[in-house]
Amino acid sequence: MQSTFPKLLLEHAAKRPQDPAMREKEFGIWQAVSWADLARLVEHLACGLHVAGLRQHDHMVVIGANRPRLYATMLAAQALGAVPIPLYQDAASAECIFPINNAEVRFAFAEDQEQVDKLLEAREQCPQLGQIYFDDPRGLRNYDEPGLESLDALIARGEVFAKDHPTFFSETVEKAQPDDVAAMFFTSGTTGNPKGVVHTHDTLLNRARAGAEFDNLTHREEVLAYLPPAWIGQNIFSYAQWLACGYVVNCPESSTTVTIDLKEIGPTYYFAPPRVFEGLLTSVMIRMEDASAIKRKLFDACMSLARRVGPSLMDGKPVGWLDRVGYALGNFLIYGPLRNNLGMSRVRVAYTAGEAIGPDLFTFYRSIGVNLKQLYGSTETAVFVCLQPDHQVRADTVGVPCAGVEIKVSDSGEILVKSPGLLKGYFKNPQATAEVLSADGWYHTSDAGFIDSQGHLKIIDRVKDVGRIKGGSFDGAMFAPKYVENKLKFFQHIKEAVAYGDGRDQVCVMINIDFDAVGNWAERRNLPYAGYTDLAQKSEVYQLVKDCVEKVNADLSADQMLAGSQVSRFLILHKELDADDGELTRTNKVRRGFIADKYDVLVSALYDGRAEQYVETQVKFEDGRTGSVSATLRIDDAKTFASVKAAA
After folding, report:
1. How far apart are CA 253 and CA 30, in angstroms?
2. What is the DSSP string of 262-326?
3. Which residues of the chain have pLDDT under 50?
4. Pairing with 192, which of 335, 366, 508, 554 sits 20 to 30 Å away (CA)?
5. Which domains, and CATH codes, for the chain?
6. pTM for the complete prediction?
């Protein structure tokens, strides 16, 4: 059934007016907003924006964390036929300029003083940005900027207009059509300026419903909305599916309270990129390292059993009665308390997406009884392309095509997709649209992969990143950098890895240590350090990381196809890779090409056989100031192994 987002809001408000639509934590207390209250707020916002001059097809930027008023503002814009554009709240002011100018944005919603300052700075190069509405007034009392106004004032004007024109809102909502543009999401811009991905109500809601039907989602689900609204993954799970299903979306107090809020809410439906699951696992492992010897021994024994039989139990496969009894005991002693500590005791379905997840990390969560599954999709496909059915979950695939989706693999190995959720196009960029959308409706994903004998899709890497080793003992072998990086990042001591090897005789890697995990490890060994740079270059830390690298090499040697991707040399970077420094996208994906150019001296040192290399790097601090970090980095060799199958 086709509809629009504002129409769905009014349907929920009519059917379940007093049921909670959203909750927001303020001053440590969860405050509920009913569907009726939310519909009333959206009406007043829409009327206020209409009075202010927002019209059909206009664009409105929204920037901030997940908040009921941010969602209400998006709905109000859509009710008028305007198009909300969420931007990343941690983006620098300069990153907002292109989207605002490209989309000719005149209206903006800013959550607080930080976002207002950002937009005011950007407005110097975006003169058309006339109206900026803020939600949180703290720190803004003495601001005297043209067009800057509180959301409360806008709502008050809208309330007056609504009283004078009682049918305006409902009539305006009724005019909207499913194929009208509903939202625009800007890509991360890893290879140039970001592109505005245009989606209609129907493309987003069609995919939201397909995902909901696949996992039997109902209005009884509880969801925690803690990821950036500008990321389409968050937008689908806590906005499109929220309105399609009518479940409750919970907004944490702040980014620092997410783990606490997760435990308090106990979501039934959970979504996170691999980095979040990695961080949660690292925190568990740090706590276990500080536990007593008896507790560590019990934990290790129970986890050994869980890794062996947990996934089979989760998938409904036969398991011996002795193992079942042992797992039940482990569930009482370890797995149950661990799920509760992670805030996942009520999770019925959990998904990870955004990038590939390490198989060991994936297996860990399923081992302890969390129904973690993978999905495949992108901004351009409205997320849902492939999903993993219950009892058919594997770490090396991303599932089967969901309802309405067709998939084929081109001669070059690229995955092509047809789906009701495909983008309408890239805004003001017909050339880029033509490059990804063929005349007969196939979307070029730029991902390399294949469909296995069971109909599941397996992703190898990005087409442009998959390469070949040239020369050396693995001449001609396939090189898949993301696969190597994910295996390294499973280890709690490694936060990020960047692998190189295409067209070269060996694979070399630059590594970020996890400062919390390695810092805890160092403190327990009475190893002094003065900060990240100092800790990263300790010989003991290099040995710790080397052990991780060589374990990955041993695993890779068992895969004849990827044995050539073993790491021969590595170094530990003197600073953490940062989106503010351009090294990561705002969704925390590695910008491998940018990093290769920025750290060209380090890449050369890795391949020239040098034992160390001096480097000085400019960095940007949170307050906008710039500085530099320098160090002489050590470079180590790692042991590689002959391909097991080849040796056999």
Report:
1. 9
2. HHHH--SEEEE-HHHHHHHHHHHHHHHHTS-HHHHHHHHHHHHHHHHHHHHHHTT----HHHHHH
3. 647-648
4. 508
5. 5-205+227-263 (3.40.50.12780), 388-463 (2.30.38.10), 467-647 (3.30.300.30)
6. 0.84
